Amino acid sequence: MSSSGKHNSKRLARAKVKPTEDSATGEKDSRPASRKKTPAQVRADRKKRVTSIVIIVFAVIMAVSMMMPSCSAIVGNNQASESTKKESSSSSKDDSSSSSAEDDSSSSSSKTTSTSDSLKKLDSSYEESLASLQKRLKKNPKDLAALLNLGNGYMSWGYQAASLATTDAEKTHVNDILGKAINYFDQYLELNDSDTVKVNRALCQFYQGDTDAALQALQKVTEDSPKFPLGWANLGMVYESKGQTGNAQAAYKKAEKTDPKDSYGAKSFAEQRLSAIESAASSSANGTSSTTGTTSGTTSGTSGQGLSGALGGLGLSGSGN
């Protein structure tokens, strides 16, 4: 080969294609020229990417829009639930108040029923025990013992029934019982005079609420029999119930004087009542209230038992004064 041919051959070897450099990064592009994307392909790729982004965004929007009704329903349900709870709580309070009122009403009704039943039992007991005396009196209308015991029995019945009577009908029933006692006492007094029976008759009027009639009757007893202690003791009680403290104290002192050995129980009864009056006066002076058990200020006449053998006290006998 000639020298010129060798020279040309070297030139051709140097002229081999060199790796291109990326104009942007300055790095050599080692990819074959056949794999390099054309501008059209680059634009197509960009278009695909933009399209994909648009599709994703659209899908997100659609998903959110589909979820909105559910979210709204959830929020609405929560609000409804809270409202229901509030209404339930309010209803519960109303029910509680209503239940409390019903309980109070039921309790009151129960008490009324209880006292009514007790009154019926009391009536039944006395009717049975007095039945034999009534049969005895029917055979002999002048049987003093039967008349006295019937009077005492109805008096005791009426006094006990008065503490149980709550309705107008029951109170009328009590007055009827006490009226029968007065009737039997009147029959007895027509046949036999007795200060004890007169006192018991006056106490029946007192329990009926006729305080003035009872006061007049007891004043008459103490005028006719000034040494009879039961007259003074019960007169003091009636005065006390009317708020006439001075007269009550004077009568109680008379009861003490006429029953020095407490044979009738008048002395101890009077001492108890005088002590109660003094205690009440002392408390009033000190500006405090005191429960003394006095009958002062009563209007029904049933709060003071009075002193009578018919009510479990002393001083009553079948043929006493």
What does this structure look like?
Pfam families: TPR_19. Keywords: Membrane, TPR repeat, Transmembrane, Transmembrane helix. This is Tetratricopeptide repeat protein. It comes from Parafannyhessea umbonata. With 321 residues, this protein is mostly helical. Helix content is 72%, strand content 1%. The protein has a domain of 124 residues: Serine Threonine Protein Phosphatase 5, Tetratricopeptide repeat (Alpha Horseshoe), CATH 1.25.40. Strands 1-2 form a two-stranded antiparallel sheet. The chain is elongated and about 150 Å long. The C terminus is likely disordered.
Give the gist of this structure.
This protein is an all-alpha fold and 321 residues long. It has 9 helices and 2 strands. Helix content is 72%, strand content 1%.
